[in-house]
UniProtKB/TrEMBL annotation:
Residues 27-66 form the RxLR effector PexRD54 WY domain. Its main location: host cell. GO terms for cellular component: extracellular region; host cell. Keywords: Secreted, Signal, Virulence. Residues 69-119 form the RXLR phytopathogen effector protein WY-domain domain. Belongs to the RxLR effector family. This is Uncharacterized protein. InterPro entries: PexRD54_WY, RXLR_WY. It comes from the Eukaryota. It comes from Phytophthora sojae (strain P6497) (Soybean stem and root rot agent). It holds the Pfam family PexRD54_WY. It is found in: Host cell; Secreted. Transmembrane segments: none annotated.
Amino acid sequence: EERGPIPRLSKLAEMTLKQNRFHNLENWLWLRTQADPRKVFKFLLLGEAGVKLENNPKFIQWIKYVKLYQADQGVHRFTASDIFYTLLASKRTEEEVAVLFASLKKIPGLKKLAEDLQKAQFDSWRIKGKIPNAGRIYGKTMPSMLLE
């Protein structure tokens, strides 16, 4: 009996690798042209109605592009607050955005950015004097969510 990789799994892994290479190339090209992250967000159709962002490869690609853009142009050129308000402008609720930011912490290389995004959202709530519903989603207080 021969044991080897499962053909379907190998094809899926290969497709994912090719997709990542394509996304990396796109991100590099956008960076070379200094494309504004808001325009890239629109180009990827991430603001369209019904588009889920959690576990969406295009959203992850956009977040990775934002990281590259910040590294190239400086964090001040497109801040965590800019990301937060870009998502709110795409008709996402603050609770949806909070869940999204928490999910980004689980993706390798995005934990620090996800924490910065959560802090930006928490600061926004604090300034507005809002009690965040997102904390209830997790059954935790917001400061403890930020420390995870």
